[in-house]
Amino acid sequence: MTDMVAQENLLFYITFAAYGLATFLYIGFLVIRNQFLARVGYYIIVIGVLANTAALALRAMVAGYVPLTNGYEFLLAFSWGIASVYLFAEKKYQIPVAGAFVVPTAWLILAYVAVLMDPASRAARPLMPALQSNWLTYHVITAMFSYGAFAFSFGVGIMYLWKKSAESREKQRGVVAFLPSSEKLDEIGYRLIAIGFPLLTLCIITGAIWAEYAWGRYWSWDPKETWSLITWLIYAAYLHARFTYGWKGNRAAWMAVIGFLAVLFTFFGVNYFLSGLHSYAK
Amino acid sequence: MVQSNEDLKASKSPEEQLNQQRPDKDGFVDKAWSFFSSMKLGLFLLLIIAVASIAGTIIPQNGSPQEYGSLYSLYSTLGLVDMYHSWWFQTLLFLLAMNLFICSVNRASSLWRLFSNPRIKAANGEISRMAHSFQTEKAISEESLVQQVEDVFREKGYRVFTERESGKTYLYAEKGRFGIWGSLISHIGLLVILVGAVIGIYAGQEGQMPAEVHSTFHIRDVQGLGKVDEDFDVRVDDFKTVYRPDGSIQAWISRLTILDKGQELLTKDIEVNHPLEIRGFKIYQAFYGANIPTKVTSKEIPQGYDFTINEGDFIPVPGTNLGVLAYKYVPDFDPQYGLQSKSDQPNNPRMVYVLYRGKEQIGVGAAELGKTEMLAGGEGQITFQRYAPYTGLTIRRDPGVAIVWLGCVVLLIGLGLSFYMPHKRMWATVEGNKEKSLLYFGGFAQKNKIAFEQDFIQLKDKL
C-alpha cells in the first residue's frame, strides 16, 4: 500500500516534470522557431499524459474508487484533460505554436498542487456517502474534457490578442510574425468552444442528476453550481454574439479568456473564497 | 434568444441573400414582438443574469439577520438575502424564457423553408462571392461535367439537387441539414427545463421527518410537506451507520416499509444517493440523531419537567442554579474505556453527562438509562429514560423533475446537432456544349468553417 502511494507520488512528479519540460520546449520553439523543439515537446506531453493516466489509475487502486473526488484528484484530472485535448487539437489544427500558450496551464495547475497542497490534502480519503455515485464520475469526466477544450481556447485567445495588436500596428516582427493568422486563430478558438460547450452542458446536467439522487434537489444555487452556470452563460453569450452579430476577433478572444477565468474561479475561487455543498472538494 | 439567426440578418453578403428575410413592421405588437425576439435582449439577459448570479455567490444566501449585520435591511429590501428567488431575479429568468420562446417561434418557419425547400439556383455572381468559390473550364460535355460534379458530391456524402434552366444546369449540394434544427431544438430544451423548474416551485413539496426506529408515521404528518393527497404510512424497521475498518463512515442505511392501510407495499433499504420512490414521493436519507426523553426534578419542584433532548443539549435543573450537559451516549459503558464504547451492543447503556453550577463544572457522571441520577447530593434529580435513535428523512415530491430531465435530453440533442452536425452548403452552375463546359462552384458553412474548407478543397481537387 505505502509502496503504491510512493509510486503514485513519483508518477505525479514525472507528470509535473513532463508538462514543465514541454512548456519550456514549446516556449523555446516559439522564440527560436526550431521545429524540432515542438516535435520533442509533443512527445514529452505524450509521456506526461501516460504518467498522468498511470497516476490516476494508481490512485484508483489505492483508494478503491474512481479517483475524481477531492481537490488533488480533480486537479490531476484537470491537467490530464488539458494535456489530452492539447494533443488532439495540435494535430487536428496543425498549430504546434499553441503549445506555448496552452501547456503552461496544465503545468501551473500541477505546480499549484506541488507547492500549495500538503501531503494530507493530497492523500486518498475514505469516500463520504454523498460522493458514492456513478453520476459523480460522469460529472467530472465531462468537466475534464470541456475544461480541457476551454483551456485551449483560452490559449488561442491570448495568441489572437497578441497577434491582432501586432497586426493593427503593422509591427509583425519576430515571435508575433510566427503566430498563425488572426482569422485562423479566431476560428480555432471558436471550434474548441463549440466542442467544450455541449460537454459543459452535459457536465452541469450530470451534476444535477447526481444532486437529485443525493440531496433530492437538482439545483440548489450553491456557489459551485452557480459558478458553473455563470461559465455556461458566458460561453452561451459568446456563441450567440458570434452567430448573430458576427462578434469575432478581439471581443470573441476576450470572451474566451474571461470564460476560462470563470472556469478557474469555479474550481479555485469557489473552493477557497466561497462555501457550499462542494466544500468536500477542498 | 436564438443561436444563429444568420438567416434573418439585414446585411448584404451573398450568404444572407440566399436566405429569407422577415419584412419590417411598425405596429405596437410587432414592435413588442421584435423587442422580445431581439438578440440584443437575449445577450443582455444572459450577461445580466451571469453578473447577478456572481453577486448571489458572494453575498451569503438565506442567512440569519445577524450574519448580515447592519446591511440586513438593505439586502432584504433589494431581495439579496434570497436573491435567486427574489422577484427581480425571477423576472429576469421569465424575460429570458419569453425571449427564448419568441425567438424559437420566429425562426421555425424560415428554418423549415431552409430545411425542406432549399434554394437550388445561385447565379454565377453570387457563387463567386461566397466564402469559398472557384471556376474552371473543362474539355468535356456539359452533361458529363454535371455527372462528374454530382458524383464527386455524392462521394463526399452530400445530398445533390439538379435543375436545368435556359441552357444552364444548377446544382445544389448539402450535408448535415438536420444540424439546422440544432439551435431551435436546444432552445426548446431550455424552455422545457424552465417549465419543469416552475412546476417544481409551485407544485413541489418538501418535508423533514426525524423518525425513530420501529416507529411508523403517516405521510400527511410530515412537517413542511403541506397538503398531501396520498394516504400511506412509513415504518422505520432499522437504521444503522456502517463504518469502515478505519473508522470512517461508509453509509447510513434506513430500512423502510411502506404500508397502505396496514398492508405492506414494499420494503427498501435507503441510503444517501439511493432514495425510495413511492407514488410520486421520494424519501431520502438526509440526517440522523437520537431522541432522549428526560425527566428533571429538584427539591423545590418535585413534580419536575419532561423534555425530549438530543446529545449535546444543556438542561437547566428547575429551581436551582444547576445544569446538566448531556454529553455523550455510550451503549456499552466500561470505566476502563472511558467515552469509547466497549462494543456496539447496548450491554450497559449510559449517558455521560457534565454537571454545572452556574458556569462552573462541578462533576461528571455516567447515568444508567431509565434510572434516576442524584445531582449535587440530591439537590436535583435527572432521569434519561431511554435512547431512541432516529433516522432523518427528507421527503419530496416534485412533479417538475421528469420535465426537467426531458428538457435536458432535448437540450443535449439540440446541442449535438448544432455543434457536431454542421450544415454545409454548396452551389454550382455548369454551362457549355458538347466539347467544353464552364463550371462555377462555391459554398459556405455557418459553423465549423475549418471542416468546410477541408471538404471544399478535397472536392475542388477532384474536379
UniProtKB/TrEMBL annotation, chain B:
<feature type="region of interest" description="Disordered">
    <location>
        <begin position="1"/>
        <end position="25"/>
    </location>
</feature>
<feature type="transmembrane region" description="Helical">
    <location>
        <begin position="402"/>
        <end position="421"/>
    </location>
</feature>
<feature type="domain" description="ResB-like">
    <location>
        <begin position="39"/>
        <end position="359"/>
    </location>
</feature>
<keyword id="KW-0201">Cytochrome c-type biogenesis</keyword>
<protein>
    <submittedName>
        <fullName>Cytochrome c biogenesis protein ResB</fullName>
    </submittedName>
</protein>
<keyword id="KW-0812">Transmembrane</keyword>
<keyword id="KW-1133">Transmembrane helix</keyword>
<feature type="transmembrane region" description="Helical">
    <location>
        <begin position="178"/>
        <end position="203"/>
    </location>
</feature>
<feature type="domain" description="ResB-like">
    <location>
        <begin position="384"/>
        <end position="456"/>
    </location>
</feature>
<dbReference type="InterPro" id="IPR023494">
    <property type="entry name" value="Cyt_c_bgen_Ccs1/CcsB/ResB"/>
</dbReference>
<feature type="transmembrane region" description="Helical">
    <location>
        <begin position="41"/>
        <end position="59"/>
    </location>
</feature>
<keyword id="KW-0472">Membrane</keyword>
<feature type="compositionally biased region" description="Basic and acidic residues">
    <location>
        <begin position="1"/>
        <end position="15"/>
    </location>
</feature>
<feature type="transmembrane region" description="Helical">
    <location>
        <begin position="87"/>
        <end position="105"/>
    </location>
</feature>
<dbReference type="InterPro" id="IPR007816">
    <property type="entry name" value="ResB-like_domain"/>
</dbReference>
<dbReference type="Pfam" id="PF05140">
    <property type="entry name" value="ResB"/>
</dbReference>
